[in-house]
TrEMBL record:
<dbReference type="InterPro" id="IPR027417">
    <property type="entry name" value="P-loop_NTPase"/>
</dbReference>
<dbReference type="GO" id="GO:0004386">
    <property type="term" value="F:helicase activity"/>
</dbReference>
<dbReference type="InterPro" id="IPR000629">
    <property type="entry name" value="RNA-helicase_DEAD-box_CS"/>
</dbReference>
<dbReference type="Pfam" id="PF00270">
    <property type="entry name" value="DEAD"/>
</dbReference>
<comment type="similarity">
    <text>Belongs to the DEAD box helicase family.</text>
</comment>
<keyword id="KW-0067">ATP-binding</keyword>
<dbReference type="InterPro" id="IPR014001">
    <property type="entry name" value="Helicase_ATP-bd"/>
</dbReference>
<feature type="domain" description="Helicase C-terminal">
    <location>
        <begin position="237"/>
        <end position="378"/>
    </location>
</feature>
<feature type="short sequence motif" description="Q motif">
    <location>
        <begin position="1"/>
        <end position="33"/>
    </location>
</feature>
<dbReference type="Pfam" id="PF00271">
    <property type="entry name" value="Helicase_C"/>
</dbReference>
<dbReference type="InterPro" id="IPR050079">
    <property type="entry name" value="DEAD_box_RNA_helicase"/>
</dbReference>
<dbReference type="InterPro" id="IPR001650">
    <property type="entry name" value="Helicase_C-like"/>
</dbReference>
<dbReference type="GO" id="GO:0016787">
    <property type="term" value="F:hydrolase activity"/>
</dbReference>
<dbReference type="InterPro" id="IPR011545">
    <property type="entry name" value="DEAD/DEAH_box_helicase_dom"/>
</dbReference>
<dbReference type="InterPro" id="IPR044742">
    <property type="entry name" value="DEAD/DEAH_RhlB"/>
</dbReference>
<protein>
    <submittedName>
        <fullName>DEAD/DEAH box helicase</fullName>
        <ecNumber>3.6.4.-</ecNumber>
    </submittedName>
</protein>
<feature type="region of interest" description="Disordered">
    <location>
        <begin position="390"/>
        <end position="422"/>
    </location>
</feature>
Length: 422
């Protein structure tokens, strides 16, 4: 099916087709085939499709069409709002808007509103209004508080990585934003994973939503491996795996900002070009590290979950879970940074004694069958957690394993940094 069959208006189609061709998009992906016709008809939508399947263009094309059908007004009323969970993703989505909109006779004024950088340029950019804003929730609320922006006329709301935005942590900010939006609007939710909890979806204010789901047959080829290793030897294991010349570039996920800095330093000490990426860094630095990695100037990027969602790195061959992610959904998002747009990829997870039970849970929830391997010279010696945990953080109940909450609490007590966010 060609792009011309998606129900896009003949007025805007030639300009979009030209841009699509320049971007190297020959034909729509399955999620684009299914979602675009529904969106241009004005339906609310819950769209579920694997990582790397082209969800961005599935909402950007109809959004550009909607813009093209409106008339120019001064000042520009904000009519379209795209919310994403991370700054990196906001920049990336803005790029897709600019790329696919570049042949349009009248182009939208798009403002990317993200935290971690000075608010002033964004205030300046919003003088005279904006047609489309791509934002992270916190900065959007700041701009609303500065009266730089009114959400009262928004016609189209997109939540990309919607399940993440609906999670606790964003829930409050999202509620405040939704309260500012008109009730009559089109709302689109996109993600590779959704909570089974329908109440959370209803909270997003969907009206009679259509549901579109692209199943795994379209899932890119991501080979998965899991290696048992003692926690203290994970750095060595990573170094030994990096001997493989096929591992030209590796995105390594760790659990904390500190681990991110420490492991990157350890790799550099072994003459491997590596940098850390995490939420404690300035936004300028984050953008630079990610760009250097995308440009191939860095072999290893050691990141927290700020890089887990949505980030598109072409031809990234390997993702390593140095530390397992918190949730089974996060696992899918992390490994989905490789194997994008139909390419092949490899995801390797390190499983230490403490993580065994959690690994099984991730496997079960995601319906995975990944055998645990041992690697020569790295046979695990640590005892599994059940044998070692005593009264420490479990409320003194003998034999009870510390829950995730217990562990988070313990971690919060142990480190001065109060923010659990990556
Ligand atoms: P998702 O949001 O589903 O994880 P993205 O929208 O980031 O995926 O797209 C993944 C990659 O596929 C990007 O590099 C994008 O440029 C590319 N892509 C998207 N749509 C097409 C298409 N129709 N043809 C070819 N490549 C595409
Ligand atoms: Mg995406």
């Amino acid at each position: 099916m060609p792009f011309s069959q998606l129900g896009l208006s003949p007025y805007v189609l030639p300009a979009l087709q030209q841009a699509l061709q320049q971007a190297g998009y020959a034909a729509p992906t399955p999620i684009q085939q299914q979602a675009v016709p529904l969106i241009v008809r004005g339906r609310d939508l819950v769209a579920l499709a694997p990582t790397g399947s082209g969800k961005t263009a599935a909402y950007v094309l109809p959004a550009l069409q909607r813009f093209s059908m409106g008339q120019a007004r001064k000042p520009r009323p904000l009519l379209q709002l795209v919310l994403v969970p991370t700054r990196e993703l906001a920049l990336q989505v803005s790029d897709v808007f600019n790329t696919l909109g570049r042949q349009m006779a009248r182009r939208p004024h798009l403002v990317c509103a993200v935290g971690g950088v000075s608010i002033n340029p964004q205030l300046m950019a919003l003088r005279g209004g904006a047609d489309i804003v791509v934002a992270t929730p916190g900065r959007l609320l700041d701009l609303v508080a500065h009266n730089a922006l009114s959400l009262g006329q928004v016609q189209l709301l997109v939540l990309d990585e919607a399940d993440r935005l609906l999670e606790l942590g964003f829930g409050d900010e999202l509620r405040q934003i939704l309260a500012e939006l008109p009730v009559r609007r089109q709302t689109l939710l996109f993600s590779a994973t959704f909570p089974p909890d329908i109440a959370a979806l209803a909270a997003a204010g969907l009206r009679d939503p259509q549901r579109v789901e692209i199943r795994d047959q379209a899932q890119p080829e991501i080979a998965q491996r899991a290696i048992r290793v003692d926690a203290g030897r994970r750095g060595e294991l990573l170094l030994s795996l990096l001997d493989d010349p096929g591992w030209t570039q590796v995105l390594v996920f760790v659990g904390s900002r500190r681990d991110s800095d420490r492991l990157a330093a350890q790799l550099r000490a072994a003459d491997i070009s590596a940098q850390a990426l995490h939420g404690d860094q300035s936004q300028g630095r984050r953008v630079r590290m990610l760009q250097d990695f995308k440009d191939g100037q860095l072999r290893v990027l050691v990141a927290t979950d700020v890089a887990a969602r949505g980030i598109d790195i072409a031809r990234l061959p390997v993702v390593v879970n140095y530390e397992l992610p918190r949730s089974p959904a996060d696992y899918l998002h992390r490994i989905g940074r490789t194997g994008r747009a139909g390419e092949k990829g490899l995801a390797v997870s390190f499983v230490d004694a403490d993580a065994l039970a959690h690994w099984r849970l991730i496997g079960k929830r995601n319906g995975m069958q990944v055998a645990l391997e041992e690697r020569d010279g790295f046979a695990p010696k640590d005892a599994p957690v059940q044998a070692r945990v005593v009264a420490a953080d479990n409320g003194g109940i003998k034999g009870r394993r510390p829950s995730k909450k217990d562990r988070l609490r313990a971690a919060a007590n142990a480190r001065p940094d109060p923010a659990p966010n990556p």
